[in-house]
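FAQ
Q: What does a multi-component entry look like?
A: The components come first, one per line:
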Amino acid sequence: KAGVTQTPRYLIKTRGQQVTLSCSPISGHRSVSWYQQTPGQGLQFLFEYFSETQRNKGNFPGRFSGRQFSNSRSEMNVSTLELGDSALYLCASSRDRQNEKLFFGSGTQLSVL
Amino acid sequence: GESVGLHLPTLSVQEGDNSIINCAYSNSASDYFIWYKQESGKGPQFIIDIRSNMDKRQGQRVTVLLNKTVKHLSLQIAATQPGDSAVYFCAENTEGYSTLTFGKGTMLLVSP
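Then the predicted structure of the entire assembly, as tokens:
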């Protein structure tokens, strides 16, 4: 069974630009979560989607958004990029039972110059 | 202002030793806990989980202990190997669904 796939693996952008990251969950998994990982803040929850609906949201500005498609694939978008948005963005999926482990992809490393 | 990087606690052990990594959590309503291992350049990898109705769970070479009284979680790794070198995160779930809150992590360094 293929794992969680994230594309692209690396991205370099400049301040003010926008970026879209993609995530394909494990087959059969309907819940997709996004996390931001930085050396300063660790792993922080961005949002979680289930059946194309955002079910939970972390404490991030509105520049961070996401969506989920009918095949459970998900994208997240960051608009008006800031230097502080440089981070590893991790996607995770689960089948969606209560209290269930998440399976993570390898992440997209975003550098904002 | 100048940003301060996260200083990860580090545990250095010799190959073959037993390792114990600790984690304190703050939410007494947390009912599910997970340990993840993250190697450089990779996403977190599931190691073992435990529900709040248990206080101990064993896997292959790993044991998780949960003390709800003092809100403490530990991961024990037996016969630690160089391949165990990584950052280890504990995570807790109180929301019912797929929202984990992660601890800051501990770096484990295993020398041959």
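Q: Is there any commentary attached?
A: Sometimes. For this entry: The mean pLDDT of chain B is 90.
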